[in-house]
Design brief:
Length: about 170
């Protein structure tokens, strides 16, 4: 078969290879974009409330992975995405009894989300003091996920000294 390919018109082979390359590139980019989308993420039953609250937020125009994946390198992003994806596949197939009622971000993911907040909101950070806080989500946990994630404590005024004691967090 390889000899038949080499015997073909070289111009035809070049055009064929280019078309296959364009098709694979386009389909890969489209697939990756879909896998980053909130529409894909909400397919898991545990993400329904997360998705519902997200579309009601000020960040609804973003993709889930704009916040939840590292962006320093494409390789790091793909590795993290693959690792997280395999974990999600496990929990949604073999480990369904281990899925918690409330999904919490891991320490690694919290660090990534904080880096992404800072990356997008640099101008805010230069205009507003944030020196008493550990991370963006310690105060702004409910921002990207709107109404559904605002707990009872959210709308209550802080007790005197509470913000500094908790470094602004809940």
């Amino acid at each position: 078969m390889f000899k038949k390919l080499l015997g073909m018109n070289k111009k035809f082979l070049v055009v064929l290879v280019l078309l296959i390359g364009v098709f694979l590139s386009f389909s890969t980019v489209k697939t990756m974009a879909y896998l980053d989308s909130p529409g894909f993420c909400q397919n898991c039953h545990t993400m329904k409330s997360v998705y519902t609250s997200f579309v009601d937020s000020t960040h609804a125009e973003l993709q889930c992975n704009d916040c939840h994946l590292p962006h320093k390198s494409e390789v790091g992003k793909l590795f993290f995405k693959g690792r997280a994806g395999m974990t999600h596949i496990y929990f949604n197939t073999l480990g369904t009894e281990k899925i918690p009622d409330v999904i919490e971000a891991t320490a690694r993911t919290k660090g990534i989300m904080n880096d992404n907040c800072i990356s997008c909101h640099k101008s805010t950070l230069s205009n507003v003091s944030h020196d008493a806080k550990d991370s963006c989500i310690s105060c702004h946990k409910t921002v990207p996920h709107g109404k559904g994630f605002k707990d009872d404590h959210y709308n209550k005024p802080p007790v005197s000294g509470e913000l500094l004691e908790n470094k602004g967090g809940f």
